[in-house]
Design a protein that fits this description.
Elements: H1 3-18, H2 23-30, H3 34-42, H4 49-59, H5 63-68, E1 75-77, H6 86-110, H7 129-140, H8 148-157, E2 160-165, E3 173-177, E4 181-186, H9 191-207, E5 221-224, H10 232-245, H11 248-258, H12 265-274, H13 279-288, H14 297-300, H15 321-324, H16 327-338, H17 344-351, H18 355-374, H19 379-386
Parallel strand pairs: 1-5, 2-4
Antiparallel strand pairs: 3-4, 3-5
Helix pairs in contact: 2-3, 6-16, 7-10, 8-9, 9-10, 12-13, 16-17, 17-18
Length: 387
């Protein structure tokens, strides 16, 4: 068996497992026998070009991802929660793996070496958390009161790609650390929750990822749902995010100043807005300081929320591309498109947007460029000189 044939057979089996299809289910989708799929995965038979294309389509992945992906993390939840959107969550994890591959491909096509994220720290104790967080805040040059855009910009300057995706509601964020580092946050959530998620996932990059797993000895990526926080690494990430966004020293001053007034709903909301976090987040921090009891939550947060249906695409509108796609990746991808190294269809695939949204976005970019040229006072002089 040739190396190329072996790689393809292994990839078919790997991707089929990722999309949670049995050999029989995949065979039914393709209209072939189960034994033929088995032969492909063993390498005793090789699918034709058309069959390979069908394999990619029916497994819901790009052909390039199936054939050429060199960086393909397997996102695994640290905590599993039962969700009616589980199929959509699994799909999101696969899309995240493809996005990492697209980042790698874009850098290769552009002839740019991705810069690694270089920060790493040991979470030695909760008692020392304030010192660790203060050091990292200074390293990232963050204000004491952090905003979502500020944290995104700071992480970008430290070579972390951030994607603001439409995701199933029960999934808060994902993170990957390898040759380059990536964080995904759920755009379906309010900005306050996304900020906490971003800080939470940043903690995973700093404290947990990019290290050898003691059992598998492989570098692993994680997907994280904040719906369950019993796993030690989740507790650490939540504690870090809480201290980064709501420093305990600042909260203690508020408690000393306002006392029991913090228990008033309006005051609680005002404090949450001050720190750019949700009422849930500030409630839990103040509970740790004894302002509330855990059982008080029922008096401040009532009612049930029905999550919206999972989105069909990660990006649904042209006007959202600039805010949802990491700006450095967007710049590289658009440069490759302008240089005709990738098609508009490939650009839409890389941005996880419908083709019509990509066409609209490119038309808006062209219109903005034309308007900028026409508004340039030197434009008429340049035209006259050219004629």
């Amino acid at each position: 068996m040739s190396t190329k044939q072996h790689n393809l057979s292994a990839r078919i089996a790997e991707v089929r497992a990722l999309v949670k299809l049995s050999q029989a289910q995949l065979a039914t989708k393709l209209g072939v026998s189960t034994s033929l799929v088995s032969h492909w995965e063993k390498g005793t038979r090789t699918p034709s070009e058309s069959q390979t294309l069908d394999l990619a389509q029916h497994m819901g992945v790009g052909l390039d991802y199936l054939l050429n992906a060199e960086v393909r993390p397997h996102f695994q939840p640290r905590t599993r929660v039962t969700s009616p959107q589980q199929d959509a969550i699994d799909r999101t994890l696969l899309d995240a793996s493809m996005q990492v591959h697209y980042l790698d491909t874009a850098h290769r096509l552009a002839g740019k070496a991705p810069a690694p994220f270089s920060l790493s720290a040991e979470f030695d104790s909760f008692a020392n958390l304030a010192n660790i967080t203060s050091h990292l805040r200074d390293t990232l040059k963050l204000n004491r009161r952090v905003s979502l855009d500020e944290l995104k910009q700071a992480l970008s300057e430290w070579n972390i790609f951030v994607f603001d995706w439409q995701m199933p509601y029960h999934l808060s964020g994902l993170s990957f650390r390898g040759a380059f580092s990536v964080i995904f946050v759920n755009n379906m959530h309010p900005a306050t929750r996304r900020l906490f998620t971003l800080a939470h996932e940043f903690a995973h990059l700093v404290f947990h990822l990019g290290r050898e797993d003691r059992e598998s000895k492989e570098r692993v990526a994680t997907a994280v749902s904040l719906a369950s926080c019993r796993e030690p690494a989740e507790k650490q990430a939540n504690a870090f995010a809480g201290e980064l966004l709501m420093p305990q020293a600042d909260l203690e001053k508020l408690v000393k100043t306002f006392g029991k007034r913090l228990q008033e709903p309006a005051c609680l909301e005002a404090v949450a807005q001050h720190f750019n976090v949700s009422r849930d987040a500030i409630f839990y921090r103040l509970t740790q300081l004894g302002v509330f009891r855990w059982t008080d939550k029922v008096h401040y947060f009532v009612g049930k929320y029905s999550p919206p249906a999972p989105p069909a695409h990660r990006i649904l509108e042209a006007k959202r591309i600039d805010r949802q796609v990491d700006p450095r990746f967007r710049e590289i991808a658009l440069g490759l498109h302008q240089a005709e190294k990738i098609t508009t269809g490939k650009l839409a695939e890389w941005f996880f947007a419908p083709r019509y949204v990509m066409d609209e976005y490119l038309a808006e970019l062209a219109s903005a460029k034309d308007n900028a040229i026409s508004d340039d006072p030197n434009h008429e002089e340049e035209l006259a000189a050219a004629s």
